Every structure is written in C-alpha cells, then in structure tokens.
Amino acid sequence: MNRLKGKVALVTGAGSGIGQGIAELFGAEGACVAILEIQAQWAKDTEAQLKSAGAQALGIHGDVSNSKDVQEAVQRCVREWGRLDILVNNAGTSVQGTPNLTELPEVEWDRIMAVNVKGPFLCTQAAAPVLRDAGGGSVINITSISARSCYPGRGAYSMSKAALENLTLQAAAELASWKIRVNSISPGWFRTRMNEAVYQRPGELPRRNATIPLGRIGAVEDVARLAAFLASEESDYITGESIEIDGGLLAAALKSSAELARLRPTPDLAP
Question: Is 157 a catalytic residue?
C-alpha cells in the first residue's frame, strides 16, 4: 500500500463522493494529498479524515474556474511539500432538474462549462510546469459515459464531459515530451452526494442495478482504485486513454443498438 509514497497529489472536488474516495486512497498509498474544494468545510473535513488515517493532507478552499485560486493551490503544494506529481481533475457540476437545451438558462450553461471544462483546463495549465519540474507526472480527468451517449435533459453536462475527453487527448499529445501522462476515467452510474436525490426515488436503485451487466451501480472505491493505478508508475506507458468504469453498461447499450440495427430493414439500393 505504498505505490504513491513520496508523491504529492492535488485532487479537486475532493470534499465528497468520488474525489474524496480518491484522496483517501492516495493518502493510504503514501501520497501527500491537497484537496481543492469550493466548500470550505468539506475541504477541512476531508483533510481531517486523511490526517486521522495517518496521511499528510492539506485542505484548500477554492474555485477551479478561478485562475487565481488554481494557481494558489498549486503553489501551496509546492510550498508545503516542494513538488507536485499528480493532478486529479475531479470537480464537476450538473444542472438542477432536467431542462432541454431550448429551456436551459444561459447562466446554467456557463456555470457547467466553467466548472467541468474551464476548471480542468486551468488546473492542467497551472500544474503542468510544476509536474515537469518534478520529472514528470500524471494528470487524471474524471469524465463520464455521458460523453459518449445522449441523455435528454442532460445535454450541457454531456457536452462538457465530451469536451473534457478531448482535453485529455490534447494534453496527452502536448505534454508527453515533459513526461506527463494524461488519462481520463469515465464512470457510469455511481451514487454520490451530487446525485443522491435520484437514488431516493422509489425503485430507482433496483431498476438501475438490473440494467447493468455486472448487477450493481459503482462504488467510489472502484474509481479510486483505477485512479491510484493511473497515478502510479504501474501505468507509466499509458497516456491519452479514456477508461470506462461502468459495470458493462455502455457495452450493453452498444450491443442493443447493434442488434436493433441488424433487425432494421435495409434500404433497397438497387437501381
């Protein structure tokens, strides 16, 4: 459990859910962990939790869509521990309710893009020179299977995650010469604080479990273990990849689409 010993990690949105799980496992694996979180109390709580488990941790209150906050977070890692090796762009947000694109307020579109796209861009831009100075490192973007699918009422969120997938590819190509690997993790259905209201609906959890080939929604630990692998030297030849972690949900959907296509009549192309 020391795959990340001597490493310094900055995890955004680590005050709850997947980000918190990643921060906890990174600490258990020996990393010094900084938590950049817009909710000040959540940052403090995660810091205290990691320290109680014996890890070195630093809670930082800040907004990933604010360049000054991002630069300060990166520099605090350097002041505290002298380096930065790992960046996890986990902070994200979604729209309240399920408005179609024709009904989505402009302010909501801007908010989602600011957190989900601009935030990872700013964090990667600020962290890259520091990762380079440490001899290279790993950037991990948390995206979503929504980037490859269409969910009515979630267009802005899906498009923001698709943009983040492309940012992963662009950064991987540009930063490889600095020995910086950039990959993304694409979760399916997970139960977190952000979507808890969905799972409070009667019958929602059994319904979702029944549609997933592996028979259950994801646990935070599933993503955390994959993130630890991508942060470690075990993945030092992997970059520019997006790894789906959805229990087979997207594969099953693609299989259903293929089967439907086979059943659909083929147009008569004869002259």
Answer: yes
